[in-house]
């Protein structure tokens, strides 16, 4: 669930931006995604379009606008900066694809990704939006999410609340063939300077190489990488 600032029009404008980020929208689709009346959704979308935060394509659908990229280019994301220093070493140690995920509502977004130079790999592009219902990264992010988010997502997952309890106990998660057939992964939580879990660092690759219990092989290295990220934050 997204946070509310207490400034109604701002929260609604952000909801419109998130709805369009999930896929191009016409007015009806925008209303369905946000739950807003047509007049409100239209007014906000047109206003965001004026500021170039939204744009319309040839079909008249709203899409993210160029101003978002311009703003993002000047943003300083300390988590991504830390990943640039830590993920290369993790990739070198494991020889597999490595990723960093951040939760946004009921999805997870890949904010950093690196692949091995050769061989079969699990490619997850930066910016990819994946479900919170399967995979080790999803398990980690949900294990430390608030209770309301857990209750909302758990009915749709491939795992149970008991699984989340076990993940919190041992400090990492693994999966095999959950998110995608033939792919295994192991993930660990990344904490900020206050100790809050803000991301999941992951190693993923073919089950044939990583095995069906990849945590036995890579959990210690994931935990070390997560600690290195924590120290940089």
From TrEMBL:
Keywords from the UniProt entry: DNA-binding, Transcription, Transcription regulation
Domain HTH iclR-type: 7-66
Annotated ranges, domain IclR-ED: 67-233
SUPFAM superfamilies: GAF domain-like, Winged helix' DNA-binding domain
A matching Pfam family: IclR_C
One BP annotation, GO: negative regulation of DNA-templated transcription
GO molecular function annotations of the record: DNA binding; DNA-binding transcription factor activity
Name of the protein this chain belongs to: IclR family transcriptional regulator
Species, as recorded: Antrihabitans stalactiti
């Amino acid at each position: 669930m997204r946070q509310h600032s207490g400034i109604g029009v701002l929260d609604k404008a952000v909801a419109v931006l998130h709805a369009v980020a999930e896929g191009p929208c016409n007015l009806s689709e925008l209303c369905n995604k946000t739950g807003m009346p047509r007049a409100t959704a239209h007014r906000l979308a047109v206003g965001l379009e004026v500021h170039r935060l939204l744009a319309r394509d040839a079909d008249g659908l709203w899409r993210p606008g160029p101003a978002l990229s311009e703003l993002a280019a000047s943003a300083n994301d300390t988590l991504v900066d830390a990943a640039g220093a830590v993920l290369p070493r993790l990739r070198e140690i494991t020889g597999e694809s490595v990723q960093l995920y951040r939760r946004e509502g009921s999805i997870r977004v890949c904010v950093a990704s690196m692949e091995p130079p050769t061989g079969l790999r699990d490619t997850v592009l930066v910016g990819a939006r994946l479900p919170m219902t399967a995979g080790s990264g999803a398990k980690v992010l949900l294990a430390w999410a608030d209770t309301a988010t857990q209750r909302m997502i758990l009915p749709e997952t491939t795992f149970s609340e008991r699984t989340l309890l076990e993940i919190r106990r041992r400090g990492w998660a693994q999966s095999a063939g959950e998110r995608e057939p033939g792919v295994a992964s192991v993930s660990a939580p990344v904490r900020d300077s206050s100790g809050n879990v803000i991301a999941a660092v992951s190693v993923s690759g073919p089950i044939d190489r990583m095995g069906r219990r990849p945590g036995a092989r890579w959990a210690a290295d994931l935990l070390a990488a997560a600690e290195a990220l924590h120290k940089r934050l």
